[in-house]
Structure formats: structure tokens, C-alpha cells
Design brief:
Blueprint: E1 9-12, H1 17-26, H2 30-47, E2 54-57, H3 61-76, E3 80-90, E4 95-97, E5 102-106, E6 113-117, E7 123-134, H4 140-149, E8 154-155, H5 157-168, E9 174-175, E10 177-179, E11 188-189, E12 192-197, H6 199-204, H7 206-209, H8 220-226, E13 233-236, H9 240-253, E14 262-265, E15 268-270, E16 273-274, H10 285-292, H11 294-304, E17 311-312, H12 315-337, H13 362-380, H14 384-405, H15 407-410, H16 417-437, H17 443-452
Parallel strand pairs: 1-2, 8-14, 13-14, 15-17
Antiparallel strand pairs: 3-4, 3-7, 5-6, 6-7, 7-9, 10-12, 11-12, 15-16
Helix pairs in contact: 1-2, 4-5, 10-11, 11-14, 12-14, 12-16, 13-14, 13-16, 14-16, 16-17
Length: about 500
């Protein structure tokens, strides 16, 4: 929206023991299972109107090239060695955990003892094996210094502090391979086919793969052209350790820049409980989008989702947001201000003088002036909830201003038409700005609103998203359409 080139990458991490076991359980080859699951994610992104410049699968040949190049670099620099490893291993998490992060549990039905990782709650088993290790312990101080000098390297702040606490106890060297006798589904270690790459070292390298790594020209200027370092890597809070400790350490070891920011979001729950197939409280996003509309779900996720704290998904809340905010504020203001009854000329009135703001319009005028800064600050810091709240706080004021102006009375009095035009202009300008700022969140509905307001395609960028930057002076460019309700009543399934 700001006119900058963007690399937006997503995809699927497809190697590891749990994939191997799931495929065996389904009677499929690993790649067949991965093809099926990866396609499902792509179908979801398409249904949700999620755009990306790169969809990366870790089973792609280009990724194997990148992973082996990084491995060879770390090996040549002396950061990888072959050693003996034993510890608590979680198949589900694809990770070893120190004893301090493991808790003993008792099965209430059988009385049998078992152990879980306290961080994830997943079961762990004591495992002993020979494998390759990365000298993670050598990076405790460097990682600490990085976080101390960059207080916004990890967002939200609570996650930043969490990682700093992990580092205070020191780091132990990290297992970065698995014996082929136990794991066959993975990228072979360069020069040693008896081992395959540890899934997280493999998976994390995808962020380099999408930039064309290994680069032929390794100058900083060439890396920047390729898109490295990443401005933001957005991850779930459950995989923060891998992205905020292991990944930066790998990059530091290879003398590559670390991501500028790691954004760790919280999770969605339902009924205040973690979504689980066994509990039966999983929300199917395809079904939700079919019922409420794609843009409605996108708005709800961005408006109600938590960056720091988990948020609870509720169909009733989705319906409520649609009725009160999307239909009641945004759609209602558009319909009223473009209606033939109040605006028979179907024209956007001329902008009133900014030097003589009517006292009744002052509160709205000030909100419209401050809105770009509020949205910019919120979106730049990945606080989408703050952005949507600022937009709808302005729309609430705009609706109040419209009602207070009583244009249905003004239209009947020719002597009051100047005031009528001012009321209508503020309503249309408020709707225009709201639609512009909502483009990343509700792309389809925003485009429809801007079409109805006759905003040209080349006037929908950030530079036009400020007070008074819409519409030309000629009659044709100021002509607006009176259409069907933008947000008609929902027809929900019973």
C-alpha cells in the first residue's frame, strides 16, 4: 500500500519424524502426505484471499540446496561437530528438552508414569544417540547482547523478556541431526548419508531459500536486493524458541544478519480451551468463511486476535462484529451518505474550508487528521487490533456527526444546503479513509466501497490516505454510486 516492493513468504515445513510416522499410519508415502497437506494450506490461503510472493515447501530441490550450503558453511567455520547426545525428546515438537523443562506425570487410568515438556505439554521420552551438534552454547552472550541492544527485536515485549530469561540460564549445544536408522524422511547430511538434518535446522533455512540463498554475490548490497535480512518473521508463540534462539544463532555463526523483528502471536481458543480434535472444538476456517464471508472472518481475526494473549473464537462474536461495526457503522454510513434521498445529484460535495471548521465537525475533523498516524503506528508494530479500533472509533464519531447534522432535514431547506454538503462530505470522506485503511484486512469489501465512491485505482495508496486527498474537481470524478447495502443481513445456519 505504501508503494514498496515486498516479499511475502509462507509455506509448509515437511520433514521430520512426525511426518514419517503420520505417513506410515496412513499407509502413504511421505511425499504423498506432504503433497496433500500442503495443497490444503494453499487452498485455504486462496479461499482467504491471502496473497504471497513465495510459497515455499521444504521438500523442494531449491531448499535442499540452501540447507546444504548453510550446513557446509557452519561446518567449515567449526560450529558443527559429531558427538553423543542423550536427553528428553518430543516427537511432536521435534525437539530435545533439558531435565529442568521436563515434568513427570501419572496416567490417572493406568497409574503409569510419563514425562512431558513443561513448555508445550507434549510427551517426551529419554533418548540416547550419536548425532551432529551445533555449538549453540557459544552464542549465549551474542544473543543476549543482540536482545539487550534491540529491545523491539521480539514482539510483543513479554516474549522478548521471555527469551532473555531463557538465555540467563545459559545454552547447551544443540542436536542438529538424526540417525537414518531412526529417521529416513529428511535432507541427508552433506558427506554422511547415515544421518539426516534435524528438522528445525532444515525448516528455519526456508527464510533464506526464498531470497535465493546461497547468493552468488555475498555483498551486503546484494543481500539487501534479495531481501535479507527479513523485516519481520511472524510465528506462533509455541515455536518462539526455535525462531528467537536457534535461528539467530545459526545466522550469527554464518555471519549473516538476523531478522529485524520476530513477531510471536498468541493462539485462538474456543470456549477458553485450546482447540483440539479430541475435544471437538476446532473451527473449520473454510466453513466459517462460507458462513460469514471471507472479509468478515479476516476482519474478526485482525480485530479480535491477540498478539500477547490468546483470544477466544466465537461465532456469536463474529456475527456481532458484522452487525454492529461492519454493517452498523461502515456500511450504514456509506448507504446514508450516498442515498438518492439525501444526495440527489449523486455527487461528492466540494471539500469545506479547512480554515473554518464548523464547531459540530471539529471532533470528527481532528479524528480524521490523526487517523493516518494512528493506523501507521499500529500496523508498523503489528498491532492490527489497535488499527481497526482507531478506524472504527473514527467511524463511530462520523456516524454521530451525521446524525447530529440531521441531513434529512437540511435537504428540505435550500438555505441549508451548504451545511448539508458539509455533512455529506465528512461522511463520504470518513468512509473513503476507512476503506483505504481497511484494504490489507478486507481487500474485497474495501475495493467495492471505493468503487462505489468512485475512487480511482491509482488513488488508493498510502499517499492518498489522508484528509482531503480524494476526488478531483471535475463532475465526473466526483460522481458516486448508490448501490445495494454493502453488508446485508447475515443468513446464518442454524
Amino acid at each position: 500500500m505504501k508503494g514498496r516492493k515486498a516479499i511475502m513468504s509462507t509455506g509448509t515445513d515437511e520433514h521430520g519424524l512426525k511426518i514419517q510416522q503420520a505417513a506410515a499410519g496412513a499407509g502413504m508415502k511421505e511425499i504423498e502426505l506432504c503433497d496433500k497437506v500442503s495443497k490444503r494450506f494453499q487452498d485455504l490461503f486462496d479461499a482467504a484471499n491471502i496473497s504471497y510472493t513465495t510459497y515455499i515447501r521444504t521438500t523442494e530441490p531449491r531448499h535442499a540446496v540452501a540447507v546444504k550450503a548453510l550446513w557446509d558453511d557452519l561446518w567449515a567455520r567449526g560450529y558443527i561437530y559429531k558427538g553423543h547426545h542423550e536427553g528428553w525428546y518430543s516427537v511432536s515438537d521435534e525437539a530435545f528438552y533439558p531435565s529442568a523443562q521436563v515434568e513427570e506425570k501419572i496416567n490417572e487410568k493406568t497409574g503409569e508414569k510419563y514425562h512431558i515438556a513443561t513448555e508445550t505439554g507434549k510427551q517426551v521420552e529419554w533418548t540416547t544417540e550419536e548425532n551432529y551438534k551445533f555449538k549453540l552454547s557459544a552464542f549465549t552472550d551474542k544473543l543476549t547482547e543482540w536482545l539487550d541492544n534491540n529491545p523491539e527485536a521480539i514482539l510483543p515485549r513479554s516474549r522478548h523478556l521471555e527469551v532473555q530469561d531463557w538465555l540467563k540460564s545459559g545454552l547447551t549445544d544443540l542436536s542438529v541431526s538424526r540417525p537414518r536408522s531412526r529417521l529416513t524422511w529428511g535432507i541427508p547430511i552433506p558427506g554422511d548419508d547415515s544421518h539426516v538434518m534435524y528438522v528445525w535446522m532444515d525448516a528455519l533455512t526456508n527464510y533464506l531459500t526464498v531470497t535465493g540463498y546461497p547468493w552468488k554475490d555475498t555483498s551486503d548490497s546484494q543481500k539487501a536486493i534479495c531481501g535479507w535480512p527479513a523485516d519481520a518473521q511472524v510465528v506462533g508463540k509455541d515455536i518462539l524458541r526455535f525462531h528467537a534462539v536457534y535461528w539467530p544463532a545459526f545466522l550469527m555463526a554464518a555471519e549473516l544478519a538476523v531478522p529485524k523483528r520476530i513477531v510471536a502471536h498468541a493462539h485462538w481458543t474456543q470456549g477458553k480451551m485450546k482447540m483440539s480434535k479430541s475435544i471437538g472444538n476446532v473451527v473449520d476456517p473454510f466453513t466459517a468463511m462460507e458462513e460469514f464471508g471471507t472479509d468478515t472472518i479476516r476482519f474478526y481475526l485482525m480485530n479480535d486476535g491477540g498478539l500477547a494473549d490468546d483470544a477466544d473464537y466465537s461465532s456469536e462474536l463474529v456475527a456481532g462484529r458484522y452487525k454492529k461495526q461492519l454493517a452498523g457503522q461502515l456500511g450504514n454510513l456509506l448507504s446514508r451518505s450516498t442515498s438518492a434521498a439525501l444526495n440527489p445529484s449523486a455527487q461528492v460535495p466540494k471539500q469545506p474550508s479547512a480554515d473554518k471548521v464548523h464547531p459540530d465537525d471539529k471532533a470528527l475533523h481532528e479524528k480524521l487528521e490523526s487517523l493516518p498516524g494512528l493506523v501507521d503506528e499500529a500496523m508498523s508494530n503489528y498491532r492490527t487490533t489497535h488499527a481497526t479500533q482507531a478506524i472504527f472509533d473514527m467511524l463511530a464519531e462520523a456516524n454521530a456527526n451525521f446524525s447530529q447534522g440531521e441531513p434529512w432535514k437540511l435537504v428540505k431547506d435550500p438555505a441549508s444546503h451548504d451545511r448539508l454538503h458539509t455533512v455529506l462530505w465528512y461522511a463520504m470522506e470518513s468512509t473513503r479513509l476507512a476503506a483505504l485503511f481497511l484494504q490489507p484486512i478486507m481487500p474485497t469489501k474495501s475495493a467495492e466501497i471505493l468503487d462505489q465512491l468512485n475512487i480511482r485505482k491509482d488513488e488508493r495508496s498510502w499517499e492518498h490516505a489522508k484528509l482531503g486527498q480524494g476526488w478531483g474537481n471535475d463532475a465526473e470524478s466526483r460522481k458516486v454510486l448508490s448501490g445495494t447495502p454493502m453488508f446485508p443481513p447475515l443468513k446464518l445456519k442454524k
